[in-house]
Amino acid sequence: MTKAPLYTKDFLLHCFSYLLMAVSFYFLLPTLPTFVTDVLGENADKVGYIIGIYALSALIVRPLSGYAFDKYGRRKLFLFAMICYAIVMAAYGLATSFVFLLFLRLVNGGFWGIVTTGGGTITSDLVPDSRRGEGIGIFGLSMTLSMAIGPLIGLQILKETGSYQFLFITSGILCSLAVLMSFFVNHPKISSRKNILSWENVFEPKVLKVSMVMLLLAFPFAGIMSFITLFAKELSIESTGMFFLIYAIGVSIIRPTTGKMMDKKGPAFVMLLSFIGTISGLVLLSQSTTEPGFLVAAFVLGLGNGIVMPTLQTMVINMVKPEKRGVATSTFFSSIDLGIGIGAFFLGNIVEIFSLSQMYLFCAIGMIVPALLFFGITLSDYKKKSKISIETANV
Q: Does the predicted TM-score (pTM) go above 0.85?
């Protein structure tokens, strides 16, 4: 029996389009913090605001966009969001004040929430049912690859040109190319949902405890996104781009084996490894004074964080009926946005009082809270709800 085709023209165009869009996003991850401090002359705590408002804007839009994609169709909304995203990315060059930059981040975060929600939804439409897991995994590599090359390219552009405006325009051009590629993707016809907009169609309470763990685990990631460039600058390390590359390598190494470990050992064993890796990586980062130590910390953090997402997402899917998986997934990813948003604001205030290295050490100590929540409450809740979900599905 031959396999249903996966690598179709439409699927590949969609993946490459999403890759270009994500690379443009990661252009700004290591460069926007220095734009805030060096060009706009703001303090380091303000960096947390530009990351936080972006994530919180995506959080507000994401549940509504998921509903809109299901009710009104994918193509027009997705293309509209990508066009707007490209325009806003190029418009960063117009930011001459911190207030205007915050406004751009607010708008940009909203369109990011729509584009990322649509990207995953369209992927599930384009891949055959029999190869859905494989297809979604391949699509997910676009984000991992963009994390590896985006910061490197963005920093290199800034180094060669010395112009933030050129960097922002280049980012907008990349997004425009992504839009162009998306125009040539043929979308299969999907029946529109007739559900009315209601709380139960945008939030799934059954996965609240797992989502709370993810929210807390997003805090240190917010610290990395917001302040790793400034921390490297403080240590006189020029390899911020290499940090993200090594981090992505760690994620890529551990992620393919995570599912197998989850199936054989269960979530308790897998998450124990994740907590060990994440805490160890944060401690190593807080104690880093040289480039080798800085990059070793990146690799260990990649291993620890690479386990979290697929493990907790699998738990979420296992806890609900098939027809509620979309809402459950939206709830889960919204917790990431909320965690990054709150974490960026909170840690931004921490660095005004303590040093960046102390902030990363506090993040390591703070991992005790999600660990206690997971092993003390969430794990037993998962075992009970996943058993009920399986029994219901078999009826």
A: no
